[in-house]
Design goal:
Helices cover 7% and strands 27% of the residues. The protein is built from 1 helix and 4 strands. It is elongated, with a radius of gyration of 16 Å.
């Protein structure tokens, strides 16, 4: 998984060759202290998948619509969730 927030994956080499893709992904690694840990939480009767990134921003995605994650809370807003 390249980006869990946007649900983007890195395609395998076989797929890239099959479609004659002539570029490859090169990206920086995650911060060492960042442990991509998802938590399941229940809010307003729905199950949510939450992920806190290395900056303290909480990204959230509903269990029944797993398309992408939106910002749920950040250190700047001083929100309680």
């Amino acid at each position: 998984m390249l980006d869990p927030v946007q649900q983007i994956v890195i395609p395998g080499e076989a797929i890239l060759q099959r479609f004659h893709v002539d570029v490859r992904v090169h990206h920086c690694t995650w911060a060492r202290q960042f442990q991509r840990k998802y938590e399941k939480n229940v809010r307003n009767g729905r199950i949510w998948h939450d992920l806190k990134d290395e900056f303290g921003v909480v990204w959230s995605m509903p269990d029944d619509q797993q398309l992408y994650m939106d910002i749920f809370a950040s250190p700047a807003c001083k929100c309680k969730y």
